[in-house]
Amino acid sequence: FSSCLAPQKMFRLSILAACVAVASAFAPTALPGAAMRTANRPAVSMQLWQDGKVQGKGVQAIPFSAPPDSLPSDMVGYVGFDPLGFSTLFDIKFLRESELKHGRAAMLAAAGAIAQDIYQFPGVDKVIGNAKMTGAHDAFIEGAHKGDPRSFAMHQIIFWVGLFEVLTIPALSDTLKGGSRAPGDFFFDPLGLGKGDKAARMQLAEIKNGRLAMIAISGMTHHYFLTGKGPVQFITQIPNFKSCANAAVETGLCV
Q1: CA 228 to chain centre
Q2: Are 214 and 221 in contact (CB under 8 A)?
Q3: Residue 208 in contact with residue 77, Cβ under 8 Å?
Q4: What CA–CA distance (Å, rounded) separates 130 from 128?
Q5: CB 65 within 8 A of CB 83
Q6: Which residue from 152, 121, 137 is spatially nearest to 225, judged by alpha carbons?
Q7: CA distance 223 to 232
């Protein structure tokens, strides 16, 4: 039967059989004592604040590279990842404060980037046209330089964000000096989402969503540079992603 098959098909079947053989060799049932280890393996538990010491034991994000001792394993969202050793150079409280602030800003930025593709407030098009993402920033700055008072929205954002940073310096200073304030805690919870037993879960959710948002807004901005499209517009037009006449930079990918 095999002699009737074309050589190319025989080659493909041989490769497939080899892959199956290799995969079966690494199956858990083929390893000595696998059944015993599976039976003794603890159940997967939610990575919560109360389980900090448990989640920190044995976690090694990078193979053959243990996390530095300066990285506390009982921190919310600990995964043993600090390949550049920042925790050995800076106060871990300062690093956590920075991570939380950047994560919160990234969550707002990612939500705003998506919202621009879904809805536009009346009158905005008269100021910046159809610009979005970094294009909207550039349009606001250009309009402000021309003296258009409606274009000073970007300046207002910079002012209020800068003012908030200045006003929070005493709080950060208290944390770094060993005060009772936790990094990133500004006692702002008007809806009471983090009170009682919910606090642990909300702290973990915030740090994980913040990390994801930092990666997401970086990808959204990168896509906009290449294609001139917002995130929703980019996803819904993936088959035609090369049609990017409004790309922020010339990449040679646009047709």
Answers
A1: 22
A2: no
A3: yes
A4: 6
A5: yes
A6: 137
A7: 11
The helix or strand, by DSSP H or E, that contains position 116, with its residue range, turns out to be helix 92-118
Cβ count near 229 (within 10 Å) = 23
For the chain, percent of residues with pLDDT exceeding 90: 18
Contacting residues for 234 by C-beta, under 8 A, at least 6 apart: 223, 224, 227, 241
Question: How far is residue 213's CA from residue 106's CA, in Å, rounded to a whole number?
Answer: 5
Q: At residue 138, what is the residue type? A: D
CA dist., res. 48 & res. 46, Å (int): 6
Residue 180 has a CB neighbour count (10 Å cut-off) of: 7
**Backbone dihedral angles phi then psi of residue 203, each to the nearest 5 degrees:** -65, -45
**Is 106 in contact with 210 (CB distance < 8 Å)?**
yes
Highest mean pLDDT among 25-39, 176-190, 221-235: 176-190
- 46: helix, strand or coil: coil
Backbone dihedral angles phi then psi of residue 237, each to the nearest 5 degrees:
-125, 30
For residue 230, give the amino acid letter. Answer: G
Q: Show the 3-state SS of 48-98.
A: CHHHHHHHHCCCCCECCECCCCCCCCCCCCCCCCCCCCHHHCCCHHHHHHH
- 159: three-class secondary structure by DSSP: helix
Most confident of 93-107, 114-128, 133-147, 221-235: 93-107
Question: Six-digit token pair at 181?
Answer: 């304030």
